[in-house]
Write a structure and sequence with these properties.
- A hairpin with a 7-residue loop joins strand 9 (219-231) and strand 10.
- 12% of the residues lie in helices and 41% in strands.
- It has three helices and twelve strands; from the N terminus they run H-E-E-E-E-E-E-E-E-E-E-E-H-E-H.
- By secondary structure, it is mainly beta.
- The chain has helices spanning 17-36, 264-267, 285-294, and strands spanning 64-72, 88-95, 103-111, 118-126, 137-145, 162-171, 175-183, 199-213, 219-231, 239-249, 252-261, 270-279.
- It has a single domain, classed as monomeric porin ompg (Porin, Beta Barrel).
Length: 295
């Protein structure tokens, strides 16, 4: 899940040559990914495991995804370290590549009640087993891509611009394991002490229970999925989370579980999360655009 940092204004000095070199590489990758997605389609939040986008899944071609994510505490009174994060509304995520061996998705997050609420993302990759039996899933993406704005006192930068890689593999009777590096905007991904913390790694695991078979006898989905992930770094996005998905149908699920943050002075110690996800019936973008042009 895309992360959110509570209001805090911190300035840093990030003039190291290696940081500049990494940022140039991150910018180049971002330009390539955005260029691949330069088509007139909807945007939405990235596929995630729990807190991070470290997951093999890529939204299927033409399938729209909606979501509402909340992070909150049950304690009172409300303070800076236990206040709820702004609700993350997912505009329709959609897969934009009509291929089996090379897939992609594109989307955005809308963080309600924030001054500049829109953050964008995209991901492309090769699904597991596309070219050989033992080939892992291989993906590259960017999330929390935003514009730098002139901030008022007490407001925080959200243009984390995180470029990341994914290597994933399914182990029978165990589950799916994914891991990969990330690099973000060094001016935005900082610790509570003002140190740049924009380079690190993410890892995730999920395991399915109670499979449900379709009409043809094959497994269509699982009623319950345990999911957990971790993002390193003492920054706004550094955290560990885990919980259970319950699937009401193959296209509607609810995820509940806690998230524990690496830098308590930024986000507090933890939040409870509820995440509602809905896949809509598949659309045919070509037919849809053709119909719109004919009007």
């Amino acid at each position: 899940m895309a992360g959110f940092i509570r209001s805090r204004s911190i300035s840093i000095r990030a003039d190291h040559r290696w940081l500049k070199t990494l940022d140039k590489c991150r910018t180049l990758v971002a330009v390539v990914l955005v260029s691949l997605c330069a088509t007139p389609i909807a945007f939405a939040t990235p596929s995630t495991t729990f807190w991070t986008p470290m997951v093999e899944d890529i939204q299927p071609y033409g399938v729209l995804h909606l979501g509402i994510d909340n992070y909150f505490r049950l304690s009172t009174p409300v303070t800076n370290t236990n206040a709820a994060f702004p609700t993350d509304f997912t505009a329709p995520t959609i897969g934009f590549l009509p291929f089996k061996r090379f897939q992609g998705e594109v989307g955005a997050d809308y963080f309600g009640s924030t001054p500049h609420p829109w953050l964008f993302n995209t991901k492309v990759g090769v699904p597991e087993g596309s070219f050989s039996k033992y080939q892992p899933a291989l993906e590259i993406g960017i999330y929390d891509l935003g514009k730098q704005f002139n901030l008022n006192p007490g407001e925080s930068r959200l243009d984390f611009d995180v470029v990341y890689g994914v290597v994933g593999k399914t182990f029978p009777k165990v589950g799916r394991v994914t891991a990969g590096p990330y690099i973000g905007n060094h001016a935005a991904m900082i610790s509570s002490s003002g140190k740049s913390e924009n380079v690190g790694f993410m890892t995730a695991f999920d395991h399915s229970f109670f499979p449900v078979s379709g009409k043809d006898g094959s497994v269509e989905y699982s009623k319950v999925v345990f999911a957990a992930d971790y993002q390193s770094g003492k920054n706004a996005l550094g955290a560990a989370g885990g919980g259970l998905y319950y699937y009401f149908t193959s296209d509607i699920s609810l995820l509940v579980g806690p998230t524990f943050f690496n830098d308590k002075d930024l986000n507090g110690s933890w939040r409870l999360s509820t995440q509602l996800d809905i896949n809509l019936p598949k659309l045919n973008p070509r037919k849809l655009f053709a119909k719109l042009r004919s009007r």
